[in-house]
Amino acid sequence: MEIRGKTAIVTGAASGIGRATAEILARRGAAEIALVDVNDAGLAETAALVEAQGTRASVHRLDLSDIAAVEAWFRDHGDVDILHNNAGVVSGLPQFPDVDAARLRWIIDVNVTALVVATQLAVQAMRQRGGGVIVNTVSTVALGTGFYDAMYATTKAAAMMFTRCCASLKEEHGVRVMGILPGLVDTPILDTTGAGGKSEWMETVLANNEACLPEDIAEGVAMLIADDRLAGGDWLAVRRLEGAIDYEWGHADTVV
Question: What family is this (predicted)?
Fold first, then answer.
């Protein structure tokens, strides 16, 4: 899809990958971007960056754990060409199995339920206007055998399977649903893994792996949006290895 002149929604847009994606969409000529997050100050900063590129920006405070609010918002705003379901959370402390049930529900609703609902309503709107592209932020942990944050890994694996199960929507409705799988990325989410900062296990991960920049992932999102030759359910993993960006492509029918 040609990004120039299109309208988009980016969730988790107040910082990190969401902000970087909004910026790259604006630089490539998107006409209007709806920025969604719970961080008002961050949203305002992102909006200023988007508008500096000549793209209209609107800011929307939306708690993705409130599924009724998510449904209502997307019914009113889902009529766009591009949706980047980027927002996500980590467990923080305490970790599973000591986390309480309310926290478990919160993680699942933000990382999975809201993503599914947003996709559902966006597809319904996009098919009426001839199609569109949806990119879901997953994680390379969905390709592995385990991860210290069990609930984060579980929800990202669910997001990966959901994305692959949406493969047929390209042929049926003209909507390509894709997955972007970031490796380790230096974003504010890392500071929510511990009590008021990075956890010890995250510090270890950082010490033993190279971190991508949010812009590295946003470039991958733009690649997925732009290439209409890609099949629905395809995904792109982005990592940084020995100072260079490494891309791994996958397809809906690929066993991982």
Answer: Belongs to the short-chain dehydrogenases/reductases (SDR) family.
